[in-house]
């Protein structure tokens, strides 16, 4: 992982402790009514390695640092020989679509690997857009490829930066940033994160992604109506399976980002899950954006890393963690991360 809070172990511990590392944007400021001086717009940027970079170069720096963190756990050279690579990237506002996403992905991944002295075969690379649900799309494709026997190992990740000056100006003009006169806005962030999936072998992994479900919400941002939570709750219900999840059986990791539209849909989804008997009690939910900011296409990968860390460090309050994603463009997704044994509570960070 690479983020404003550092690599995976440091960042997950910092998130659990509620640590925030925000700084004012050097490119964008705002005026609240009655202000005589501009007020800063705060962002959650990766410090150091992204300094002076923008556009593709910034995504390369994020990806390089995340892969470097991954290399402390898994040899990158070995992964390159055997793994398929599935990566979620920022979407495009025009109709450039799949081809543009592929070109961007090849640029970013090739340069990051070159910086690490690695060379992975490009024919194994796949790239996805879809906003914060992009990682779930990549994850679903990777799981299907493994089920078909195309790969025994897959690297799945997401990378995005929402701190670019042009993007900040757009969000400010749309009144989507959290400012003094807009408390229900988002705080832009940036991150990259990768997980390694392996087919079941003699040694069952301690932490597994057990199910993925995708959906689509027609009442997404930009449409005339508010989302009613049906698509989101259906994804969650599918990954939870039959029966009722009681107290202490599940915790959610969401991509809530401070905006009212996402909170409204999340609330509607929870009401539906309770009324349908899927949730038998209030379930805790974690909001990574409180520490990392809104990290766009990296949100799902960030959630997967947080869930993995919670199990490995034995502080998950439940045996299942459901990561939930609500993209601005309508994609909805959920996946379940579970541990082969019951997690111990109150473990070390």
Automatic annotation (TrEMBL):
Highest taxon, organism lineage: Bacteria
Protein name: Beta-ketoacyl synthase N-terminal domain-containing protein
One example GO MF annotation: acyltransferase activity
Lineage: Bacteria, Pseudomonadati, Myxococcota, Myxococcia, Myxococcales
Organism the protein comes from: Pyxidicoccus fallax
SUPFAM superfamilies hit by this protein: Thiolase-like
